[in-house]
Write a structure and sequence with these properties.
Layout lengths: L10 H21 L9 H13 L8 E2 H11 L5 H10 L11 E4 L17 E4 L1 H7 L9 E3 L6 E3 L8 H4 L2 E4 L4 E4 L4 H13 L5 H4 L13 E3 L1 H10 L1 E7 L1 E6 L5 E7 L6 H13 L6 E6 L8 E5 L5 H11 L3 E7 L1 E4 L4 E4 L2 H42 L1 H10 L3 H12 L3 H8 L8 H26 L1 H19 L6 E3 L16 E7 L3 E5 L14 E2 L9 E8 L3 E6 L3 E6 L13 E2 L12 E7 L18 E6 L3 E6 L11 E2 L9 E7 L4 E6 L3 E6 L13 E2 L9 E7 L1 H5 L5 E6 L3 E6 L13 E2 L10 E7 L5 E6 L3 E6 L13 E2 L9 E6 L1
Parallel strand pairs: 8-17
Antiparallel strand pairs: 1-3, 2-3, 4-5, 6-7, 8-9, 9-14, 10-11, 11-13, 12-13, 15-16, 18-19, 18-21, 19-24, 20-39, 22-23, 22-25, 23-28, 26-27, 26-29, 27-32, 30-31, 30-33, 31-36, 34-35, 34-37, 35-40, 38-39, 38-41
Length: 824
């Protein structure tokens, strides 16, 4: 050994340089994806090896072990399990939004089960993966020697697809990590096309097309502002929540149904966590947990105890388990030809992809142009030879050898070597007229193609048009609907005013606690006395309890029989068809066992931001409530400005009493109370003094034995000031009804027995509805306990005196009774 060649060096410097070399090797060669094709080296090598083996989407499936061996032996000198694990992930539809490998056999599950050994599974490329490799044989990408110098491998794939964002990427390098979620291909194409047309577009502009991550497991993401910030800076957290709802069994018990879970959550681990929380009594009210998932989809049932609060338990699941988790976005990828790691914004990634495709399309066009020119050159020689075929034949016949013939043709006719070789190999059948025509037609086509290719290469805009056309074809062929729902507001707020149009709708609530929102156009007007049409499919022993006409942006205050109040938006209630049963109210409100909604108060604005009406006093200053036993109470509406989702106390009830009605008033209105036996009392609102939320109220009407309140109505001060004609509509349980002029009801003091509002007989049955008709109300929608519905004009309902029975409004089936009605 020549000691003179050994140079001393500080060990710290040596360690530093060696570690940096190692770190860059891991960063560039293993852990991070290339921004151009979105692939790490192992994935790129697997896909190219399968392409080279001919494992197309239409070919026969081959053993995964064969693919792993091919990849290891030729391109990727690492562990076989590292290659197989990467291959397996590219075949999992719960890991990849758009799988690149089609697998047959056990490729693992969402429960964390490992794939079968590579000798048992089979695979081939998917059509999408083929798009990643198309044109690779047209000198579109650079090639380098493989690890042992025996063959060449591509440094990057041509990549017709925006793979980096389409399927995302996860990787941990030395001192850095990448975390890119998958996205929807249709949205990505729309965003790319927009960026090509508008190069100065911002990330915020692109987010109008690309809404956010689109996970293969579905779920929902929240908070548009957080998504925008994450994609603008390349880093940030996005909340991903599973899809779960509360449903009811035939026996009346509630359960939580989970149908989608967040991305990268192990379902088995999630269920183990829930069971552990139940065992540790951190999650109370759970009776049983069942996994009913199948090939049709994910389905997890969490049975609840009868005394449980379903919505509270669901909120606890979101808080304590991975049913809600934050996806930490880190858009880190290799740029500058796959040599430099860099954190990118959404626009940066799309722009880098477009630049890559510009280079690929340009190099492909140059390749096609060179081949077209070569072919055109040969065709020109053949055409010239056919034009002088006798002289050509004579020259060849006079030549002693093939080589002499080649020289003589070149010398006499000025053919090139390539043309001469083609002429000498020309068959005699080419002399036929049709064959001559084919050569001339092909030559014209090649000349036309050459002009088109030259035009593309001269104009960058035309290169971009080619990219746009290819993207449009990709979208048409592979585009699909988004799987992950997007909510604009942060978790817990659920405000979607900018997405929901403001329009009239009907809110329908059943006695059993099912609620739905419908379009009033679902019901056509009919003449009074008809049978109507099916309005809802109810469960056995379930009645339609409440019908209200509101707008989608209205706040809804839900008052319950126990005296509590909840608040939500009308559009948060799921829209259903005319015959749909709706969703259980416990999906929206945290009701206690045995608690049910008895009144709804729609308010047109947030209670915090009430506006003045034409400069006068506030329109809705108070909420007036009435109970089954005739107790009435008035409370300032500001006391209900901050209603929690867990509810607030609205009134303190005496034993045996229930809160039945709640309505907004101005403080200048009048009230009318009506009982089931036809008694009524009309008094001024000022007779009831304002009280706090926890107060019990005062007597509104003195009830006789076995009688109870059936209606509380507000006579608006603004209508009385306009001398508008106002009528009281009453409907009985046997389908009779009438209108009576309010002038027939004298104003009294509260607390008395009142006067007759209707003649109640066995024929009519007890009163079930009592409602004040305002001038702008035109139609009546009445619904029976069994779900039969009729919509009829109020003009067809007779106006009669106080002590009359009314006319038939609705023909009922035997045993059926009118349950509710609303005027619109």
């Amino acid at each position: 050994m020549d000691l003179g060649s050994v140079k001393p060096r500080e060990i710290t410097e040596e360690l530093k340089d060696s570690y940096l070399d190692y770190a860059m090797s891991v960063i560039v060669g293993r852990a991070l994806p290339d921004v151009r094709d979105g692939l790490k080296p192992v994935h790129r090598r697997i896909l190219y090896a399968m392409w080279d083996m001919g494992l197309r989407s239409s070919s026969k499936l081959r053993k995964s072990a064969l693919v792993v061996g091919e990849t290891l032996g030729k391109y990727h000198p690492h562990g076989d399990m590292a290659v197989y694990d990467s291959l397996v992930r590219m075949a999992q539809d719960f890991s990849m939004r758009y799988p690149l490998i089609q697998g047959q056999g056990n490729f693992g599950s969402i429960d964390g089960d490992a794939a079968a050994a590579m000798r048992y599974t089979e695979c081939r490329l998917t059509p999408l993966a083929e798009e990643m490799l198309t044109d690779i044989d047209k000198e579109t990408v650079n090639w380098i020697d493989n690890y042992d110098g025996t063959r060449q491998e591509p440094t990057v794939l041509p990549g017709k697809l925006p793979q980096l964002l389409m399927n995302g990427s996860l990787g941990i390098a030395v001192g850095m990590a990448t975390s890119i979620p998958p996205h929807n291909l249709t949205e990505l194409v729309d965003g790319l096309v927009h960026l090509i047309d508008h190069p100065k577009a911002t990330t915020e502009d692109l987010l109008k097309f690309i809404k956010g991550p689109d996970f293969p497991t579905g779920g929902a993401i929240y908070d548009r502002s957080a998504v925008s910030q994450a994609y603008s800076t390349g880093k940030g957290g996005i909340i991903n929540r599973g899809i779960a709802k509360v449903e009811e069994t035939k026996k009346g018990n509630f359960y939580i149904l989970i149908t989608e879970i967040p991305y990268q959550v192990n379902k088995a681990t999630l269920l183990e966590k829930i069971a552990e929380l139940v065992k540790e009594k951190k999650l109370e009210g759970v009776r049983d947990i069942r996994d009913e998932s199948s090939r049709e989809g994910l389905r997890v049932i969490i049975e609840l105890k009868s005394e449980a609060y379903p919505q509270k338990i669901l909120n606890r699941l979101y808080k304590l388990t991975d049913l809600q988790r934050t996806f930490h976005l880190n858009l880190l990828a290799l740029v500058d030809g796959g040599l430099q790691p860099q954190v990118l914004s959404l626009k940066d990634i799309l722009a880098q992809y477009i630049e890559h495709r510009k280079e690929v399309v340009t190099r492909r066009t140059q390749f096609d142009l060179a081949r077209a020119r070569e072919r055109a050159h040969i065709l020109e020689g053949l055409k010239k030879a056919l034009d002088h075929i006798d002289a050509i034949i004579s020259t060849i016949k006079k030549s002693a050898t093939k080589e002499d013939a080649h020289k003589n043709l070149c010398a006499r006719f000025k053919f090139s070597d390539a043309q001469t070789a083609a002429i000498l190999e020309m068959r005699l059948q080419t002399l036929a007229g049709l064959e001559r025509q084919k050569i001339e037609d092909e030559l014209r086509e090649k000349i036309k193609l050459i002009k088109e290719l030259e035009a593309i290469l001269k104009d960058t805009r035309k290169v971009l048009e080619v990219i746009q056309k290819e993207l449009a074809a990709i979208k048409e062929k592979y585009g699909d609907e988004r799987k992950t729902k997007v909510f604009v507001s942060p978790v817990g707020e659920f405000k979607e005013e900018d997405l929901v149009p403001q329009e009239e709708c009907i809110i329908m609530l059943t006695q059993g606690g099912y609620i739905k929102r419908m379009n009033p156009k679902n019901y056509k007007a009919q003449k009074r006395g008809g049978k109507g049409m099916i309005g809802i499919t109810t469960r056995e022993e379930d009645d339609v309890k409440y019908l209200a006409c509101v707008t989608t942006h209205d706040n809804l205050l839900f008052f319950t029989n126990t005296g509590r109040v909840f608040q939500t938006k009308a559009y948060e209630i799921g829209e259903g068809s005319r015959v749909a049963r709706g969703q259980a109210i416990v999906n929206f409100l945290q009701l206690a066992p045995g608690e049910r909604v008895t009144a709804l108060v729609p308010t047109q604005e947030s209670l915090k931001n009430m506006k003045k009406n034409n400069g006068d006093a506030l329109e809705d200053n108070f909420l007036v409530m009435a109970t089954k036993n005739g107790i009435i109470k008035k409370t300032e509406i500001n006391d209900f400005a901050n209603v929690r989702r867990s509810g607030l106390i609205a009134i303190t009830l005496k034993k045996g009493d229930e809160l039945r009605w709640a309505k907004a008033t101005s403080g200048q209105d009048e009230m009318i109370l009506v009982t089931t036996k036809g008694q009524s009392i009309h008094f001024k609102e000022k007779d009831v003094r304002p009280m706090g939320r926890s107060a019990s109220g005062v007597r509104g009407i003195l009830l006789k034995r076995d009688d109870e309140l059936v209606g509380m109505e507000v006579i608006g001060a603004k209508w009385k000031s306009q001398n508008a004609k106002m009528e009281l509509l009453v409907v009985t349980e046997n389908g009779y009804g009438k209108k009576t002029d309010l002038k027939q009801f004298k104003v009294q003091h509260r607390g008395g027995s009142g006067i007759k509002a209707a003649q109640v007989t066995s024929k009519t049955g007890k009163l079930v509805i009592a409602e004040i008709l305002e001038p702008d109300e035109q139609d009546l929608i009445a619904m029976s306990a069994k779900g039969q519905t009729i919509r009829t004009s109020l003009a067809s309902v007779s106006t009669l005196g106080r002590a009359t029975q009314g006319v038939r409004i609705m023909k009922l089936e035997p045993g059926d009774k009118v349950a509710s009605a609303a005027c619109i």
